[in-house]
Amino acid sequence: MADDRTEKDRPSLSRQFLPAVHGLLARPLSSYYLLIASAGLLLLIGLTMVFSATSVKAYAANGNAFSAISSQAVYALLGLVAFWICQRLPAVTLRALAKYVLGAAILLLAFLNLVVVIKGVGPLKNAQVGPISVSLLSLSFGGVSIQPSEVAKLGLVLWGADVIARKGPALGHWRELAMPLFPVIGLLFVLVGYNDVGTMLVLLALTVGLLWAAGVRLRVFGALGVLGLTGIGLLIAAASRGAGSGTDGAENYRVQRLTAFLTPLEKCDPGGVCYQLIQGRSAIFEGGWFGVGLGKGALKWGWVPEAENDFIYAIVAEELGVVGCTVVLALFSVLAYTGFRIARRSTDPFRRLAAAAITTWLVAQAVINMGGVVGLLPITGLPLPFISAGGSALVVAMAAIGMLASFARAEPDAARALNARPTPRWVRLVWAPLPPLPPPRRPVQPRPPAPKKPGSRSSVGGTKDRL
After folding, report:
1. Average pLDDT of span 444-466
2. Where is this protein primarily located (predicted)?
3. CA–CA distance from 403 to each of 121, 214, 353, 354, 356 (Å)?
4. Cα-Cα-Cα-Cα dihedral of 235, 237, 241, 244, to 10°?
5. Which residues contact 82 (CB under 8 A, 6 or more apart)?
6. Beta-carbon neighbour count of residue 333 at 10 Å?
7. Does residue 369 have a pLDDT over 70?
8. From residue 24, how far is each of 28, 33, 192, 245, 351 by CA, in Å?
9. pTM assigned to the model
10. Pairing of strands 132-134, 139-141
11. Residues 354/340, Cβ–Cβ less than 8 Å
12. Where do the domains of the chain lie?
């Protein structure tokens, strides 16, 4: 009986585990370490999967299986540099740079769209304007390619957070949102959505996250949703007039791609718009629970279009199975939890708004990508953050993680802990400076006791005294 009573009184594994998790999360720098761990593991998985998805194709093209991964590794290194720079920048500097980053993005987008319209650049065409090579979504100069829409995401985060933080309580009035926030956002939607509706959806989600963190009233979201859906409808219709990769007079390819996931596979045309969806689904079925192993997937050998880019999640499912997909989902979940935790704990309005916007952007893009691969959402051509092959997308995403890391170090408890036991000077010079100390906590003043009603037992001359 004594042994049985001991086993019964012993706390369960969950009760032993949860306090340990809460203890780790209560540490001052837990947000910073969770962010670094989740983003770092996603980047490592991305490099592995890009090599696995491109090695066969690269070897068949030029006899070098490492050519594609070498390019991706260079961009990953540039992304780490961008992370290091951004985590060192204080909020004041980020706010000062906001309008310049957004202005540069608008100018690049305007130039890109102008060349695309004038020279009729399509999905498989390039146009040369002096030393600049222009494709449908990117600009190349001297072998360096950049997508202006990726810079627009970062610019909207910084500029939008700065504008909303400056307005403060006045944001509750509609006219404060109307100028200058909504006109600039509308201009970005048009410039980005003309060629890339998927990225425009990410900008819309980013804007919603920004306004939600600012505490804007729900009716504003209703109006924004109506305007956003109207704009998306107009951009989809514009594809029949040649917008993006559309052709004047041809069948609207945007409607086909956005509705293909609703068509059952047995009724879908395997030689048309459903080809990518069918091949990606086949790769997922091949993987099973544990996958066929890294480098052993057969469907990536040119059979899955864009296997290293927007359909790399299908390669993860084929080679690493359900287990690998679950790990990727878990890491994005940790990233989402950490980003919103940083936003909730930040006392500075700009940091809180920027952290919420960055987290919404990365998580929304990941959900749209993975939902399109598994057939739950339309295929939009968006890359999977940190994992898909791509230069400017990876660099910009790592810069955003660097900003989140800076905000995590500036949390009140983290800032006090770092300043209480400062690291050596060379570490601060090489890695990151000390964050500023938050204002001291105000002591809680005890509330004065409420006056007693006459006749109460504790009042002077009351019942107790009379007795």
Report:
1. 52
2. membrane
3. 35, 19, 12, 9, 12
4. 40
5. 395, 396, 398, 399, 402
6. 13
7. yes
8. 9, 11, 42, 50, 23
9. 0.86
10. antiparallel
11. no
12. 39-433
Closest by CA to 314, choosing from 294, 292, 271, 285, is: 285
159 Cβ contact partners less than 8 Å away, ≥ 6 residues apart: 98, 99, 101, 102, 184
Other Cβ atoms closer than 10 A to 232: 18
Give 426 or 183, the one with higher predicted confidence.
Answer: 183
148 touches 108 (CB < 8 A): yes
| Rounded-to-integer distance, Cα 274 and Cα 320, Å | 24
Q: Is 455 left (phi over 0), alpha (psi -120 to 50) or beta?
A: left
Give percent above pLDDT 90 in the chain: 32
Determine the average pLDDT of the residues in 417-437.
81
Q: What is the pLDDT of residues 109-150, one digit of tens each?
A: 999 888 888 877 777 678 888 888 888 888 888 778 889 999
Give the per-residue pLDDT at 61: 66
> For the residues 225-247, what does the mean pLDDT come to?
71
Number of Cβ within a 10 Å radius of residue 325: 20
Mean pLDDT is lowest, of 209-223, 245-259, 448-462, for 448-462
* Identity of the residue numbered 457: R
Least confident stretch, 36-40, 98-102, 113-117, 157-161: 113-117
- State yes or no: cis peptide before 123, omega within 30 of 0: no
CA angle, residues 271, 365, 323, in degrees to nearest 5? 80
The per-residue pLDDT for 131 is 85
